[in-house]
# Entry
Amino acid sequence: MPLAPATKRNLVTSALVAPAAAWLFVFLVLPFIAILVFAFGERAPEGGYQAAFTFAQFANLGSRAAAFRNTMMIAPVGAFLCLIVAYPVAYFLAVKASPKYRLVLVSLVVVPFWTSLLVRTYAWMYILGSRGLPNLLDMVGISDVRMLNTPGAVLLGIVYGYLPLMIMPIYVSLEKLDLRLLEASADLGAKPLSTFFGITLPLSLPGVMTGTALVTILLLGEYLIPQLLGGGKVFFIGNALVDLFLQSRNWPFGSAIAVTLVAVVVLVLLVAMRIAWRFAGTRQVDLV
# Structure
């Protein structure tokens, strides 16, 4: 008996989705279930995991309050700085740049991704180290300037490393902007600032929220930049997880922190989606 067309479409769709779904289940869902189980266990005497059911690990989260505080303060500030720098760049690429050179300019934004973040961060370690900018400032009479191993150095590394991830979503939103709306606003006597806040910004808000949510979520789990540019003095949750899993071998406590981090990421995503829908109205807003 031949299958109905709708049944065939459903089977084809299921066949296409099945590999990706299986991949996500094996490499995302199952590891998270394991972490969740570990979070309610105890540390074995020799390190690792010992089966138990206790909330002691979650009750001990306060001992890593500094890591949570640094992450919750620096990650949003870093995302905001990325937004401040990225929006003018994206606006220039989408609205002001000549279509003839636009593809080249967009490619230049992506070029840093061709180099490892580790290599780029090590380059900033040299620039901000004693032989870099502080040495140049000392030559002109400005001495005792400390740049490396500070929150400022971490923020600089964050903006440099994550800027392309903020530029591209905003660029995609601005590229769809109907320039006739800007011309009409100018013809009606609106000032450039009024046009920006009344037309450009609301229409580009989906890209802004997408970029902000993407960068913030990635920064919540950042490890490399705080480790290298912060010198262990600017401790993020990612640094705490590495310490607990690889050095202290306290897997249950590390798992509890990881579960808490996932909960924070989900909360940030939900809040970002709510804000985006509230300000964007019925326009499409995709954050994931």
Notes: The two ends are 41 Å apart (CA to CA). Confidence is low (pLDDT under 50) at residues 282-288. The longest helix spans residues 5-39.
